[in-house]
Design brief:
230 residues; alpha/beta; D-Maltodextrin-Binding Protein, domain 2; 2 domains; 3-stranded antiparallel beta sheet; 7 helices; 10 strands
Length: 230
């Protein structure tokens, strides 16, 4: 399968290759299958997973997206993460939650996203309608740098990703205390593995789900997550 560098959930240099890869490895092992994951930039991760000519059966991790569900089989849940707005401590960005909120109230803020990432259906729909103008870049790291230089008011990001990157990335480590998550979160987002929408892909998905039922998904996920966030 393919994946991307998205710590602490996935990455070749992470403990157990990340929390989601740890779950996937354990699930496949439970049904007698050895998982091999190759890591690429996000666009290539998706491209290889889509390609009928590639050797890859699918990719992970992923948030659920109805559009992607038309081309991939989604597994059962392999963990979850808190998604929300990250900003700098002294910024004035305000967020009261999506329930009853006029999304256009965010139009005056400079909000960063990562190109190609799924966020929440409500947020992504507001962006598509033009209620929110976002600045899309290639990585979460880039958005944290832009926050430091006041080129963004907020960025949409998973809190665990923010915690890991701000603690480990050169240029961010000395500013770790500058970042905060704005409450409430946008969502607690489940994470999944995705398999090609073919007969073989469906078979792999079904075996994988059987493996998930044979392990304690949350325990495996939490152990690897905590190891990578120490």
């Amino acid at each position: 399968m393919t994946s991307l560098y998205w710590p602490p959930y996935a990455g070749s240099s992470l403990e157990a290759q990340g929390a989601n890869i740890a779950v996937a490895t354990a699930a496949f092992k439970a049904v007698g299958v050895e998982l091999e994951v190759t890591f690429f930039p996000w666009a290539r991760t998706l491209g290889l997973a889509r390609s009928s000519a590639s050797e890859y059966s699918g990719y992970l991790p992923e948030y659920y997206d109805p559009k992607r569900a038309q081309e991939f089989y989604f597994s059962d849940e392999i963990g979850s993460g808190p998604l929300g707005f990250v900003t700098a401590h002294d910024d004035q960005f305000q967020w009261s939650g999506s329930s009853g909120l006029d999304w256009q109230a965010l139009a005056s803020f400079r909000i960063g996203t990562v190109r190609g990432y799924v966020n929440t259906p409500e947020f992504d729909a507001a962006v598509e309608r033009g209620d929110i103008a976002v600045e899309a870049v290639e990585s979460d790291t880039r958005n944290l740098v832009k926050l430091l230089y006041r080129r963004l008011d907020a960025a949409v990001m998973d809190e665990n990703v923010m915690r890991y990157l701000s603690r480990t990335e050169d240029g961010l480590k000395q500013h770790q205390a500058s970042f905060r998550m704005v409450q409430p979160y946008l969502d607690q987002k489940p994470l999944y593995a995705c398999f090609k929408r073919t007969n073989v892909g469906k078979l792999w998905r079904d075996w994988f789900n059987e493996g998930l039922r044979r392990i304690d998904v949350q325990a495996v996920f939490n152990e690897a997550l905590n190891s990578n966030l120490k």
